[in-house]
Amino acid sequence: MQEIFQSLDLDPDFEISGSGDYASCFAVSDLAAASVGAVGVALAQLVGQTGVTVDRRLASLWFASSVLPLGWEIPPIWDAVAGDYGCKDGWIRLHTNLASHRDAALGVLGVKGDRAAVADAVLDWGKDRLETAVVQAGGVAAAMHSTTEWASHPQGMAIAVEPLIHWQKGQAKPWKPTKGRALAGLKVLDLTRVLAGPVATRTLAAFGADVLRVDPPNWAEANVVADITLGKRCCYLDLHKNADRKTFEYLLAQADVLVHGYRPGALAGLGYDSRSRARLAPDLLEVSLDAYGWSGPWRTRRGFDSLVQMSSGIAEAGMVWAGANQPTPLPVQALDHATGYLMAAALLRMLAGNGATQAQLSLARVAALLMDHPQAHIGNLSKTPRADDFTPEIETTPCGPARRLRPPLSIAGNPMYWGRSAQKFGSSTADWE
Question: Which domains occur in the chain, in start order?
Answer without folding.
Answer: 2-74+161-293+332-411 (3.40.50.10540)
